[in-house]
Amino acid sequence: MLQHQIAVTLIPGVGDIVGKKLIAYCGGVEAVFKQKKQNLRKIPGIGEKLITSITGNHLLKRAEEELAFIEKYNIKPLFYLDKDYPERLKHCPDSPMMMYYKGNADLNSDKILSIVGTRHATEYGKEMCEKVIEGLSANKVLIVSGLAYGIDTSAHKNALHYGLDTVAVLAHGLDRIYPPLNRPMAEKMIRQGGLLTDFLSNTIPDRENFPKRNRIIAGIADATLVVQSGAQGGALITADIANSYSRDVFAVPGRIGDKYSEGCNQLVKTNKAALIQSADDIIYLMNWESTSGSTGKQKKLFYDPTPDEQVVINILKERGTSSIDLLCQKAAMTISKMAPVLLNLECQGIIRSLPGKMYRLDI
Fold it and tell me: What confidence score (pLDDT) does residue 56 get?
């Protein structure tokens, strides 16, 4: 099964969106490679060149090589239909069919913040990055970034320093670290966070890979914070993707005329990002108050849930954080029936609504 899951990502000309449709049409990932040519011809968008690739054995052979690499280095594969696949990414149409993970952080953590910015970070940018992460340390937020020089490095380094798990999304395979100077930090992150990629081993960090990996940085988190950015750059691409996923976007403002504050100021000016001056702003906007003390929220101690409400409670007890789509699926309810159930449970203080139409128990 895993060999076929890897192989389907190798079909030339088939991206994540078409690949998922192909699997659904065929009835499973193994079925893709067992289809007869006449059946494949009936699938819209599948031509003779793709059929030749699918029915040949070279894709399965390359997948077998990757399988050996995964097993040798104890890498965890995450297929989009797997239970452990990041729940937030499942709701992004172009999310990777397959990812490869080395680490111990929970990719379905209750609170995940992506931090991005320019490779040419100034002292102001680094100071603001540290200030925000220090302020989030009591809230156990998982910090995600891209391991690049500048703001990315500052985000990972400060997360490690202040005791937060931090995950790097890579633009290459797990057989290398780029930039090489960040290897010692990356090794620490495997023990306090992790390394995540949708690229196979032997994939080098080509320029076009970086914008592609940005969709994971944007989609895996509840919100994306842009600390510093020029008028153009990868951080702004990530912010645009996060907006397209209906995720919150924040930006640290800078002095007018500063080259590496132009992007952040423009995001705020055009209402594409909320202005952030400290971690408290993020905590307030995301409703991420620290769980170390009282939240000040009065919960109903003696509440008799309805049968439908009890079903939802049981699902959340079992799965932790879940999306409304998954709740509907597990509870066999329509969204119109589920919505008032969730609203009442939230009013009773039993569940909490999270960004991205996610819910978790609050008792």
Answer: 67
CB atoms closer than 10 angstroms to residue 127: 13
Q: What kind of fold does domain 307-361 have according to CATH?
A: Arc Repressor Mutant, subunit A (1.10.10)
Q: Look at residues 142, 158, 62, 68 and name the one whose alpha carbon lies nearest to residue 108.
A: 142
CATH architecture assignment, domain 103-286 = 3-Layer(aba) Sandwich (3.40)
What gap in Å lies between CA 184 and CA 207, rounded to an integer? 23
Dihedral sign, Cα of residue 287, residue 288, residue 289, residue 292:
positive
Single out the residue of 340, 321, 336 nearest to residue 90, CA to CA: 321
Can you give the pTM of this predicted structure?
0.78
Q: Rounded distance, CA 102 to CA 55, Å? A: 32
pLDDT tens per residue across span 207-216: 899 989 999 9
Write the pLDDT tens digit of every residue in 183-213: 999 999 999 999 999 999 999 999 899 989 9
Radius of gyration of the chain (CA): 22
Under CATH, which number does the domain 2-72 receive?
A: 1.10.150
Q: Residues 145, 186: contact at Cβ < 8 Å? A: no
